[in-house]
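Purpose: get a first structural picture of the assembly so the mutagenesis plan has something to point at.
Setup: two entries, given in the order below. No constraints added.
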Amino acid sequence: MAGSGFFRFSSPASFFPLAGRLVPVFGWLAVLLTVVGLYIGFLVAPTDFQQGESYRIIFIHVPAAWMAMFTYLVIAGWSAASLVWNTRLSAMMAQALVPTGAMFAFISLWSGAFWGRPTWGTYWVWDARLTSTLILLFLYIGLMALRSAIEDPRRADRACAVLALVGSVNVPIIYFSVQWWNTLHQGASVSLTAAPTMAATMLAGMLVMSVAAWAYTISAALHRVRSIILEREAHARWTREVAR
Amino acid sequence: MIEWLSMGGYAYYVWMSYGMLAIAIAIEVFALVARRRRALEQVEQYDEETGFTEEAT
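Result (structure tokens, whole complex):
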């Protein structure tokens, strides 16, 4: 099993050094892309003719919101894998992604509030998009609370996996909320099926910042999963090689 | 520069958004480093409590 192929890196002992090599790669990629993204967002992209400069919040709001939703789906995917194959590492990956996903969910709500105030005249409304995103943040917090409430890590893995899978129904609700209900929140400006309704440089800044968010999330999650592996495999002999 | 920082009168909203992102990332990076240090200490502590050594295994 420890040889080659699909499951080669599914054991914590062989994944640990691989993750360690990838953390700085994705970390520096995130830094680089953030610099480029902010440069485009603040110095290249033009002022919006309706919203003035306030629209520049888009360069963190949209990437954070996408990242929060996507990360939740990845957590649900790892959770499903851990339930089906009973692999420890899948559950650890799911666990490692939760705090970063929560951070982006919070940032999407926070930046949305500070964008909503000048454009809608309010920081918060109980509209479908905003409410379902708040539920996403609560799901992330719930996953962290549930894990810390269960002492046995393997039982915590299963409980969190079930919560992650049940909660994943919320992600399409967030995504389609602007179509299903009358919301104050605007519809999608960018989609796979239609031409984007924004200036090319604005779109470029947003996409670069989105890729930066991906790189950051990968780096942070891999860094965290290494700590989780150490916490849970303290009894295993191989951890001595990295601890000393 | 001052004009750029004023964000056409929207400085408060723009910088509150970006500022919170910077704070959030700083907190997360700090937490990541702290967690790794704790995890490594935990491994050391396990050895002291159990008398675990390379030779014993």
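Chain A has a mean pLDDT of 91.
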